[in-house]
Fold this sequence. Notes:
By secondary structure, this protein is α/β, with parallel strands linked by helices. The protein contains 14 helices and 15 strands.
Amino acid sequence: MNKKEIIDLEEKIMAQTFAKRDLVLTRGKGALVWDIDGNEYIDCTGSYGVAVVGHCHPKVVKAVQKQVETLIACHASFYNDSRSILLEKLIGLAPKGMDRVFLANSGAESVECAIKLARKASGKPEIIAMMGAFHGKTMGALSATWKKKYRGPFMPLVPGFKHVPPNNLEKIKAAITDKTAAILVEPIRGEGGILLPSDDFLPELREICDEKDVLLIFDEVQTGFGRTGKVFACEHWNVVPDIMCLAKSVAGGLPMGATFAKEEVMAAFQRGEHSSTFSGNPLVCAAASAAIEVLVEEKLAERAATLGKYFKGKLEALQEKYNIVREVRGLGLMIGMEMRFDVYSILMDCMNSGVLVLDAGRNVVRFLPPLVIEKPQIDKVVEALDAAMEKENK
Ligand SMILES: Cc1ncc(COP(=O)(O)O)c(C=O)c1O
């Protein structure tokens, strides 16, 4: 099939729920992807933050190849060797005290599990989420997501969700009632514009939750797995939540979600109260074990910290050069560049110069490259941005 035939088929048959780019990607390696005509791109979308260990990492490929010939499907009502190996690795990686995990297939599902668990463990119905937050688009996760565009058409959503301004401890305290089960927060806001909390926010939020007997849930779906320069973003502030959601990057590119919880919290679930047919699928577990080995052996979190500083420095230099940039912010290789205007044309110009970048809201260019990206590749990204911004600046 050629490019046009592929695009026509997807347009004709697939539910039209995605805003598409005019690009057919057929191959990937490390931080690079290629389109059907062989054109090369530096992938700063990381497939929306998934490709942390890089596209088609050889260790992940090998693990998948081995598992695919051994056992592909195994429902979690049976035990499985690959699953048990992964569980041990995951708990070895998780913040201390998070000793249990539910495996799912996506970020939204990991949030659904967290919501149900918080209600069950606390015996209370309400969840406080942040204005501007993104937690996914299934009904429970959507109820915690802030954007009206996503929520509006699907009312009524799950009852019991309240939104408060982020980074505002007083407003959070005021919103807590005797019905509050949990507070749900992205340590660093992702889709909502790459916003960092103030230094005292998460530690004080932890104290408030302890005082008021409210569970603290961190959604690390985008920030987790080395992205911000630590394995989990909450490590930057030394705060351990009661429940933590992970997905995107955990299985080296294959679909997996994981909800971690403290032993006494996860104990609230009785057998049968939460499940999923593909939970702990051996093929995905084998990929995830390999991805964790890569993360640790290649010291990718440390790499994200070092390269993130380098990348951010280069973007700050662009900010000095062009007054169309309002702010550069982020941690590790999760970086946002807020512009004074809609960034769509920047995204398109970069794409035409062989660089794929994301937006985060209307006016933020977002970078979530694989953590294996090389310095010369970052330099090329900055060159492409420079050219796109030069054009905008005219
Ligand atoms: C913080 C956060 N939570 C949840 C989700 C939902 O994940 P998924 O798209 O895998 O359902 C996302 C997706 O971008 C996210 O960034």
